[in-house]
Design a protein that fits this description.
Helices cover 41% and strands 24% of the residues. By secondary structure, it is α/β, with parallel strands linked by helices. It has a single domain (2-206), classed as Rossmann fold (3-Layer(aba) Sandwich), CATH 3.40.50.150. The structure holds S-adenosylmethionine. The site of S-adenosylmethionine has 20 residues, from helix 2 and helix 4.
């Protein structure tokens, strides 16, 4: 109960969030399944519709235990998947799934330096924790190749509070907004979210 209340209100600073997800990691997949968390699957369905060619290299920011990665790997079998998160224990669980080529412990607002550029970057279920949008989008721009895509979900209640439309306008010189979904259920069987707190899926394309 405490967990879900914190989820709605936000957990706190990066250290608190890291500890929260470390402590939750072994139960996370089970509980999210109980709450009927389908955003990873919905994200893949969106990618299947919108991407003209399958991704070759994907960076999964805030990958957690790998729920989005698992759905991606089912559909894009040749894609090479990289992931990062601040929760070491979640990363260990993601590693056991054998779907990520490379997993690193890193804040999504920090520069991710790899030898390759990605044609897809994802950040599913995690925009809630972004403290500095400039840093996040700058990192995404840095990691993406030209014309690469960024898919993320964002809670509509926070979208309104943060005036997220303005944030999208602010990055419009670097990213074209390719698609914004209608409101979608997020955690329908969690009593605090139900059909009250919904998300949108957003697909941006780097110029
Ligand atoms: C709700 S989970 C989503 C995980 C996964 N993407 C999914 O769909 O199941 C949120 C994740 O964001 C991670 N996270 C929170 N703040 C972060 C940050 N600043 N940098 C990187 N990861 C972060 C947490 O550790 C957690 O694994």
């Amino acid at each position: 109960m405490v967990k879900s209340k914190s989820l709605v209100e936000g957990i706190g600073n990066v250290l608190t969030t890291k500890k929260y997800y470390d402590d939750w990691s072994d139960q996370y997949d089970f509980i999210l399944n109980q709450w009927h968390y389908k955003v990873p699957k919905k994200s893949i369905n969106l990618l299947k519709k919108k991407l003209k060619t399958p991704p070759k290299y994907t960076l999964d920011l805030a990958c957690g235990t790998g729920l989005f990665g698992e759905e991606l790997a089912k559909v894009y079998k040749k894609n090479q998947l990289f992931g990062s998160d601040i929760s070491k224990k979640s990363l260990l669980i993601a590693k056991e799934k054998n779907i990520y080529q490379n997993l690193i412990k890193k804040n999504f607002e920090s520069r991710h330096r790899f030898n390759i550029k990605f044609d897809l970057v994802s950040m599913i279920g995690s925009m809630t924790y972004c403290k500095n949008f400039d840093k996040l989008f700058s990192n995404v721009k840095f990691t993406l190749c030209k014309k690469g895509y960024f898919i993320f979900s964002h809670r509509i209640d926070l979208w309104k509070k943060q005036n997220f439309d303005k944030i999208l306008i602010g990055i419009s010189k670097d990213f074209k907004t390719h698609f914004i979904s209608r409101p979608l259920l997020y955690l329908p069987l969690n009593k605090d979210f139900k059909n009250k707190i919904k998300i949108r899926l957003v697909l941006l394309q780097k110029y």
